Amino acid sequence: MLRWLLERIVEFDKQALLYCNSKHTPVWDNIMSWIAGETSWIPLYVILMIVIIYRERPYRFIITIVFIAITVALCDRTSVLIKNLIERPRPSHDPEIANLVILVNNYKGGVYGFVSSHAANVFGAATFLTNQFKHYKWSFFLFAWAIIVSYSRIYQGVHYPLDIICGATLGVLIGIQCYIFKVKTAVYIDRRVERRQRNKKLKIRNS
């Protein structure tokens, strides 16, 4: 029964990929290629960094930026580890459907695709920043960004929908845990700073 269910899920995953991947136009090819690019979103990252610096205390923004970097690094490395353990070929490398997949600029990606590193990274960052900003407009924008980036990988034919869903889930879980550790770290440092300030005041009074 379990084997039959898994086979049905895999078959549905392939059909969903082929349907989404079939909707190609030259304009959308260029747009999706840009969206999936690693350097395309640098202006957004700069804006987010400026917002974090503006909203945080002088030393706290450093903690936040460090933990964002940790979040993305963990998402990326963990997703690569899962890829190498599961060894599920990308659609572009899957002998069963590779000849049916429409590629953009002949880009095939690496051999294995489960889980998607793109999806894990952007959903991890979106989850962390949503908790950081705590505002529905930021939440909507960040997760819309994560969904668009992730979908671009299906459009390009280098990831199955299940690769994206599981990668996104991984990213959300890591993003939540990293934010919790960030808060605990910030609270610990705040207490240390406050303790030092109290000690300085006591020394001044006693001198």
Descriptive account of the structure:
This protein is an all-alpha fold and 207 residues long. The protein is built from seven helices and no strands. The mean pLDDT is 89.
In short:
This protein is mostly helical and 207 residues long.
Order of helices and strands: HHHHHHH
- What Rg, in angstroms, do the CA atoms define? 21 Å
**Content-based structural category:** mainly alpha
Number of helices: 7
Proportion of beta-strand residues: under 5%
Report the helical percentage: over 70%
The number of domains? 1
Total DSSP E strands:
0
Quick tags:
single chain; 207 residues; mainly alpha
Write the layout of secondary structure elements.
Layout: H1 2-21, H2 26-36, H3 42-55, H4 60-86, H5 117-133, H6 136-155, H7 161-206
Helix pairs in contact: 2-6, 3-4, 4-5, 4-7, 5-6, 5-7
